[in-house]
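User: My collaborator sent over this chain with a note saying "see what the structure looks like." That's all I know about it. Can you take a look?
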Amino acid sequence: MRTIHPETAIGHVHLVVTNLEQSLRFYHEMIGFQVLNVANKKAALTADGKTVLVVLEERSDAIRKPRRTTGLYHFAILVPERKHLAQVLLHLLKSGYPLQGASDHLFSEAVYLADPDGNGIELYADRPREKWEKTETGEYKGVSKPLDIQHLLAEAEDEPWKGLPPATKIGHVHLHVANMEETYRFYVEGLGFEPVIRMGDHALFVSAGGYHHHIGLNTWAGVGAPKPPENAVGLQVFSIVLPNEEERNKVIAQLQQIGATICEETSVVTVVDPAGNQLELRTIG
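Assistant: Without extra context I'll predict from the sequence alone. Here is the result:
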């Protein structure tokens, strides 16, 4: 089994929403994305004015995602510095937008909320890598402590909020899956991600290059949970970005070895995990 290239990262997430205008208002005014373009009930959002991080697509027949189905648990927006997390948190608090939680994971500090359609969002900042704590087995400690909000807000500085900084990216994606054994085979043996945190038999976190996690996977919606309906709001697809075509081809070959079905159309390579979550394998540029 070959490990995925250490420079692999998450590219973008594509979400189905019920009302594009409402979602654009939320992602721009509350989260701080810039709108790159809007066409045919679809919008691309960016932090640096050129790199697409989130795609929103309105479907006229969209329905609420049923509970206890696979799909998106949350996607995570990584800001470059702690002060940026403090600034967006202060903005959200001043705006009165409801938060769902705030946690200290030791390797990162995070704030949780949902968009108007219930799509889960994590906003987070990483601690310096040398401070990430490992267990005796060499994996990272999977800890969720209450976030010291007052200490974090002290970092906000007396600056007007200007939205997300240009270096913002999608740090990770966390998914509901149906079967952990099949999930391990796909993400570890197929894609080549490394297991970095395990929580019993119900949660697995995997990464490239020693990161604390690029993808979180859990069976919290129930072992054997079904896929949501085709027209449910939530995750349409997310992308994994590899450094070049050679590295992508190696991943494709390894996925084919475990029996995964690859769909190739022009420059886009798509594969679906055993729980029905769709991934795109892309290359830089």
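A starting point for your reply to your collaborator: The helical segments are 20-31, 82-95, 149-153, 180-190, 245-257.
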